[in-house]
Amino acid sequence: MNQKLEPGTILRERYRIVGLIGSGGMGAVYLADDLRLEGRRCAVKEQRLENAISQAGREQFRQEASILARLDHPGLPKVSDYFTDETANRDYLVMDYVPGQNLEQILKQTRRKGEFLPEDTVRSWMVQLCDVLGYLHSRQPVVLHRDIKPANIKLTPENRLKLVDFGLAKPLDPTDPRTITGLQGVGSLPYTPLEQYVDYLGHTDARTDLYALGATCYHLATGETPPSANDRFLNPDALIPPQKINPALSGGFCRAILWAMALHPKDRPPSVAVWQSAIAGDAPVPHPAVEIPAAEVPFSVRLRQNAPLIAIAALLLVWAVWLTFGG
């Protein structure tokens, strides 16, 4: 069941496998030649499923194909085919092959030299990614990526960024917030906001992607993986200000990063366009509103203000106890 496809394997009498690009627990991505279109190379994403979850997994994979097939943006790969091998219980998604390294690889190379990525470079990358997210969030229904991180962003030889791996993407329907949580997971923890941990409650929106983009920017600018939102909730000092790690960063750039990484969605930028102006230096980052000092706020008010985060923390605690003693 978990056997990888060998080079030379031909799928659907059209796609000849060249080699493995990457693999995970439930699938792999292969480089392939398109035998009908000479000279065209494509990426073939394979999903291998166990019988117990095959139907739900297949539906999610089909959703990914449907989402990508409707998208048309230079910062996104284009889907060209989708098919199923019922005998092997495998699904396949064929899309544009995106050459180049991902940003995680580029960052690691830079850090091995003892250097930081230049602020102007990271800033220009964020502006590009904001264009992509602005496009996704303007679709009807809105499309959320929900797994933005350096490893899912490719830099092409033409110096263009492409956002890849839509395995967690979903169309946002406020009237039906359900999703296949057990298969989709919560994304990559250093880049995942608290509200995505309990996505089945329907709390994710465009600001969820903004948190992940801000955390990605933090990682690229400092070379340090940001602490998870859960760690930050339990320890407010867990997130080290970017300038303390990389003193060369400008104050406005750092404030923009931290704005996107606010734990509560209402404290983040209201849209990608607003954050794009801030990260580009075209608009100032607003200072937090002056409120009553925390010590003077009545307990009932503080409880009401933080009810969503408290609920998430309680659910995480129950989950941890269950995994420890009941799993």
Question: Which descriptors would you attach to this protein?
Answer:
Transferase(Phosphotransferase), domain 1, six-stranded antiparallel β-sheet, 3 domains, 11 strands, 17% strand, 327 residues, alpha+beta, three-stranded antiparallel β-sheet, 12 helices, Phosphorylase Kinase, domain 1
Fold and architecture overview:
With about 325 residues, the protein is of the alpha+beta class. The chain has three domains: about 10-95, Phosphorylase Kinase, domain 1; about 100-280, Transferase(Phosphotransferase), domain 1, CATH 1.10.510; about 295-325. The chain contains twelve helices and eleven strands. It has a six-stranded antiparallel sheet with strand order 1-2-3-4-6-5, with helices on one face. Helix 3 runs antiparallel to helix 6 (about 205-220), helix 3 (about 120-135) runs antiparallel to helix 10 and helix 6 crosses helix 9. A hairpin with a 6-residue loop joins strand 3 (about 25-35) and strand 4.
